[in-house]
Design goal:
Layout lengths: L2 H21 L14 E9 L6 E11 L2 E10 L2 E12 L2 E13 L2 E10 L4 E6 L5 E4 L5 E2 L3 H10 L4 E7 L4 E16 L2 E11 L7 E7 L5 E9 L2 E7 L6
Parallel strand pairs: 9-10
Antiparallel strand pairs: 1-2, 1-15, 2-3, 3-4, 4-5, 5-6, 6-7, 7-8, 10-11, 11-12, 12-13, 13-14, 14-15
């Protein structure tokens, strides 16, 4: 198989890494913990790739008020894993750690982000890069935990949502808005969903839409992202967790 095709698959896995923070979800009935632990599978279909990739997401309580969320995907060409540790602060997963690992075609990339709440400083390291630090807000969450904050906000009836999100490079304010309702077929069941769009700059080449199921505690059941390299769709395989 040619290297161009292999690179296409690896790019699809990279999209999985980008989409995973939004898709890693759990039923949240209220703004307060505990959050029900879960293990859920999603499938990713990318334009130009003739097979799907399965991603598994797990949420569990580690100890006390500390929670761990993890997403992983693996096939014969590569592997991706993301991990986050956080405590709930009202409706926000207040992160203390975020990290990812991506490998494929003989290459390995890793990053870690530590968020110090006492000093209000985040410090990150990336493969081939030096240490980077920057200030964070009291409400900052990490990329992987964004979905929990979105579910909580939707459950509260919010239509326009802003989140401070820290990654290995900087702190960014991300905005999301409800744009309508649609019915999707998931695991053989027709579900009412609320359609949410991530608001980006007018000149951004990316478009991101998400579908949440209000009758299932605003579980995120599908996400669509359009990039320069085509369309990528991630869909929940089953409404029942493992």
């Amino acid at each position: 198989m040619g290297s161009l095709y292999q690179n296409k698959v690896i790019r699809s896995l990279r999209v999985l890494l980008l989409l995973a923070p939004i898709l890693a979800v759990a039923p949240v009935a209220s703004a307060q913990p505990p959050v029900t632990p879960f293990t859920l599978d999603y499938r990713l279909k990318s334009e130009g790739v003739p097979f799907t990739i399965t991603a598994t997401r797990t949420l569990k309580q580690v100890k006390g008020g500390l929670w761990k969320m993890e997403v992983s995907a693996k096939n014969w060409l590569g592997e991706i894993r993301e991990t986050a540790l956080f405590n709930w602060q009202s409706c926000t997963p207040q992160s203390s750690y975020y990290g990812y690992m991506r490998k494929g075609l003989g290459r390995l990339k890793e990053a870690s982000l530590h968020l110090d709440r006492e000093t209000g400083i985040a410090a990150s390291e990336r493969s081939g890069k030096g240490m980077l630090s920057y200030p964070i807000s009291d409400t900052a969450t990490d990329e992987l935990s964004v979905s929990l904050a979105l579910q909580c906000a939707l459950d509260r009836g919010e239509k326009d949502i802003e989140l401070d999100v820290a990654d290995e490079r900087s702190l960014e304010t991300q905005r999301f808005k409800v744009v309508g309702e649609e019915t999707l077929k998931i695991d053989g069941e027709r579900l009412k969903t609320v359609k949410v769009q991530r608001v980006r700059d007018d000149n951004s080449p990316r478009q991101t839409f998400m579908w949440f199921a209000p009758n299932h505690q605003f579980l995120l059941v599908q996400l669509q992202q359009k990039n320069k390299d085509g369309e990528h769709v991630m869909t929940l395989q089953s409404l029942e967790g493992k």
